[in-house]
Amino acid sequence: MYFITAITGLESSNTRCFGYYPTKEEALLAVLENRCDLNEGMYNNIVVERIDKGIHSITEEETWFQWLQTGKYLGEGNWHQISKPPETDHITNYAIG
């Protein structure tokens, strides 16, 4: 499954898993379309993680996004895919913990 988790900032542990999709394509499209306002005026990054079923499952793949504000009002912006931030090299499994 591909889990979509928003993060307030890379130095923060404030996260919210918004949900999951069975395919990578569906999950990435949900982020790019900003379905249900994934930014919520407070999240700066999103990670889409592929996590297999089971107990203590590991993250097998990550795709990262950053919110880019385009206007002066909250919610005016878009998600843009970015490289994995180096600050997250030793952190995994944001969705499940």
Account of the 3D structure:
The protein is mostly beta strands and 97 residues long. The chain is 9% helix and 38% strand. It is built from one helix and five strands, in the order ββαβββ. It has one helix spanning 24-32, and strands at 2-7, 15-21, 45-51, 59-69, 77-82. It has a five-stranded antiparallel sheet, covered by helices on one side. The longest helix is centred in the first third of the chain and has 9 residues, at 24-32. The mean pLDDT is 92.
What are the key terms here?
5-stranded antiparallel sheet, 1 helix, globular, mainly beta, 97 residues, 38% strand
Provide a brief overview of the structure:
The protein contains one helix and five strands; from the N terminus they run ββαβββ.
Describe how the helices and strands are arranged:
Blueprint: E1 2-7, E2 15-21, H1 24-32, E3 45-51, E4 59-69, E5 77-82
Antiparallel strand pairs: 1-2, 1-3, 3-4, 4-5
Strand-pairing-aware structural class: mainly beta
The shape, in one word, is globular
Low-confidence stretches: none
Spatially, the strands of the biggest sheet line up as 2-1-3-4-5
Oligomer type = single chain
- Strand coverage percent: 35-45%
User: Helical percent range?
Assistant: under 10%
Order of helices and strands: EEHEEE
Q: Give the N-terminus to C-terminus distance in angstroms.
A: 15 Å
Summed over residues and divided by their number, the pLDDT gives a mean of 92
Total of DSSP H or I helical runs spanning 4+ residues: 1
Main beta sheet: strand number and arrangement? 5 strands, antiparallel
Query: How many DSSP E strands?
Result: 5
Q: Measured on Cα atoms, how large is the radius of gyration?
A: 13 Å
